[in-house]
Structures are given as C-alpha cells and as structure tokens.
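ok so heres the complex, four chains, lmk if somethin looks off
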Amino acid sequence: MQIDPSSSADLSVQIAQAIKDAIISGDLIVDERLPSEAELSDHFRVSRPTVREALKRLAAQSLIRTQRGASGGAFVNRLSFEDAYAQQVTTSTLLLSMNEVSFDTACEARYALERACAPLSAERRSADQLATMRAEIFRQGQPGLTDVAFCASDVAFHRALVDGAGNPVLSYQLAGAVEAMQPLMNMITFTARDRAVITGLHTRIADAIEAGDGGAAVAGLQDLEDETRKLASDVFAARSGR
Amino acid sequence: MQIDPSSSADLSVQIAQAIKDAIISGDLIVDERLPSEAELSDHFRVSRPTVREALKRLAAQSLIRTQRGASGGAFVNRLSFEDAYAQQVTTSTLLLSMNEVSFDTACEARYALERACAPLSAERRSADQLATMRAEIFRQGQPGLTDVAFCASDVAFHRALVDGAGNPVLSYQLAGAVEAMQPLMNMITFTARDRAVITGLHTRIADAIEAGDGGAAVAGLQDLEDETRKLASDVFAARSGR
DNA sequence: AGAAATCATTTGTCTGACATTTAAAAGTCT
DNA sequence: AGACTTTTAAATGTCAGACAAATGATTTCT
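and the predicted structre for the whole thing:
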C-alpha cells in the first residue's frame, strides 16, 4: 500500500484508494484488522486527521467498520446484501431525481427488469412470499388507506414478487429499480387513480405466480406497465392542459 | 438541518446524514453551495475536523464535490450516470467476491436481466451500437488474443447490446450485472474453452439484433447462458475430480 | 475463585495553527 | 480608459498535540 507523493490529488483520497485497492485485490481480507490510525499515519507519512478522513470515506461505502476500545480499530467489512440494497436504493433515487429521467424511461426499465424475475418467481416462490403478496393486495383494498401507504404496499408487493425468484443477486439488482420508483409513483397518486384496477392486476399476477404460470405473470406485469404509463400520460396531459 | 445531541451515534455520521437528508428531500438543490466548514461547525456546534469527516463521507458517495479557493466550498453534486455506473460496478464486484455467491446464481441473474434488454435493443439499437457488437465479435476471432482481452471484449459486446436498448436507467442497472461478472468469467477462461462456440452464439445474437428479431435474440442469450453454465459445471467437476 | 479496580490501547473529538489554491479587488502602466 | 500585474481575502487541505470515551486485558482485593 503506497501513495504517490507527486500526485496532486488530496492525500485522503489517495490513501482511501490505496486501501480500497488492497481490499478489492484481496490483500486485505474480510474481518482483517487494519493498522491503527497512528500506524497508518506513520506508514503514509501524513497526520492522523488525514488518515481519519480517508477511513471515513471507506466507511461511507461500507468497506470498513470501526470499533473503539482496546482491541478496536478498523476492520474490513463484509459487504452484506442488505448494505448493498440500501446503497443501490439511495443511488437510484438520487439518479432519478437529479437527472430529469422521463417517467416512461424509468417505468420501462423497471418493468423490463421485473418481468425478467417473474418466470423464476412463478417457479420458486415460497409459500411465505406468496402470502406476503396476498396480504399486500388485501391491504391495498382497505378503505381509508393513505396514498403514501398504498404506494408502500405497492412496493412491498413487488419486492415479494422479486424475492420470490430466490436469487439474492437479482433481488439486489432490482432493489433500486423497484424502490426508487416510489417517489415517481407518488407523483401520480394524487390524481384520481382507480385502486381497484391496480389491485385487480396485482391479483392476476399473484394468481399466475401461485399457479406457477410464468407467462401469465409476465403478461400481467405488461398490463400493469401499460396501465401505469396510461395514468402517467393522463396526468401529464391534464397538467399541460391547465 | 439538525442533529440529536443525545444520540450515541458518531457526530460525523449524524451530520453526514442530516446533509444527505437535505439533499434527498430537495432542501439542498444541485450545484447549491453548502455553508463553509467554519459555518457548519458553528451551526452543528462541533469542531471543523468533525465537519470535515462528515463531508468526506458525502464526497465518497459522490453526493458533494469540493473546491478550494476564494469562491470555493462544498457543492451538491449532480449524480451522473457515469458516477452511478462506477459505484454500481464496485459494489457488485465486492458483493460477489465477499459473499460466496454461486456461479449459477450470478449467471442466472445476469442473463435474466440481459434478456430483458434484448427485445428493446432489437427494436432501437443504433447502427453504431450494432457496429460495436460486430467489431467485438471480430476481435474475439483474432488468434493470439489473451484470455483477459477476450473477456474484456466479451463484456464490451454485452455492454453494446444493453446500451442498444437506449434506456440509460436500464444501462445503469445492468452495469453491475455485466461488468462484475468479468472476474467470475475469468475463473473459467483458463480452461480449454472453445472460443468458436462463444463467438458463434455472439454472431447469432448480433444477427437477431440486426434483424430486429427480439425473440431470436432472447433465444440466443438463453443458449449462451446454457453454454456458460455447462462450461462452469465442467470446470467444477474437473476440479473436484482432481 | 470471583468480583472489583486499574491500566493500556484505540477511536472520537477539540483547539489552534499553517499551507495552498483561487477568485476577486486593488493597483499600475500604457 | 483599458489591459496587465499585484495584492488580498476566503476557503479547503494538512499538521501537531491534546483530552474524552469506550473497551478489553490485567491486576488487586476479598
């Protein structure tokens, strides 16, 4: 682990990169303890605050974790699927909110990916996952449910569908697509959306998953996508009409 | 923007979270300048190093950028697709290398997602993207190409296919799936893989894309997945046999 | 032997200072 | 007046040293 003293980049950036490279290359393995901050500042010939800034950069990416106390220190963190989910959702949300992605583009991507999970989910979903889908459909039919709660339930339904594929890599990849859409979907919830239509489609999809009919599930998702896009275009038309 | 003095969490974590929330909620907009480090340390009643650690956490996630000098400071960064790609690839790579994900699981996820792009790509790919696919196939047929270069070309081929869908959100989501697989694919390259079979399948896929036949492209990808999994299982069988 | 007190190590935080970069302001010359 | 140079001020980057707080290990006392 070395840094280039002639580089113009900030020292904390260089140090963070050096440690990151060591982790990716396998020089530092999971749960291995890094040298203490004092030792690192000796090694890189920089002050302790500079080392700390580098370590905080790595901690922000869940690459390390720190612990105080006698046998404490910084440890290489095993990147969990859970941590990766959270990062994925945050990044996707910001990406969508900051880049004026059209609703159609986001919608297309989301449903294209979700349809990829449907056949696997129809084949493998657990009873528990199917029960979750049914429970969310039931919740969505309750009168008095707020728009925000309806959207959250919608997301939970789709999460269960995706998780049904039993492939954690797929679930991780889809996390951003499904969850980051929630704010965009909120955008159209405030209009007179017909919840019965949505829950009807959800029921069709759940039935297909229960029957193990991947093709029908894909078709149901296709109809749901069409419905969602129609709703959005109505909203946009109404807005520009005003 | 406030922090909870009674919380046991590290101050720099709390401050980073408070600023992050302000960005996500829209209180801080893209390119807006944050208060200077001195002003932030006054506001949160902490020292400047603590504020700096918080800012470095945010910078590590590309949420802010900093600039030195008179009119410098920390600015809310527009999260670009490029930055998001890079984060996605790094996270996916670490996730796969640290969690003993089976080859089958990763392979299934990758091809399931890629097949979701194929019909869109068949419909919309630009001439340039098709040319890239053809060029990579040509490169893959060159004798003397190293295994590493073959893999890189393989990735470039699939990237062109995905980008052909003309949906940046989809390209972003797929970046991790396609690029993070490269190390795993390297794992099986060192055996006597028949490149002609692979390039033959690539040609079939490119032909389908050129003809605008999404179904054929999906079928080609399915065969490629089957071939890849067969190769991998052969390798694993040979290893355990030794 | 077991509980309590002490100690050493490590991260978390603070204070204050200086270095470096950068844009704007001030000054100078033509 | 206008263009160029110099100065200045503001901001981040880096450093040094110190104390606080947490935590496991060690020692001491009962």
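quick notes: Strands of chain B lie at 64-67, 73-76. thats all i got rn
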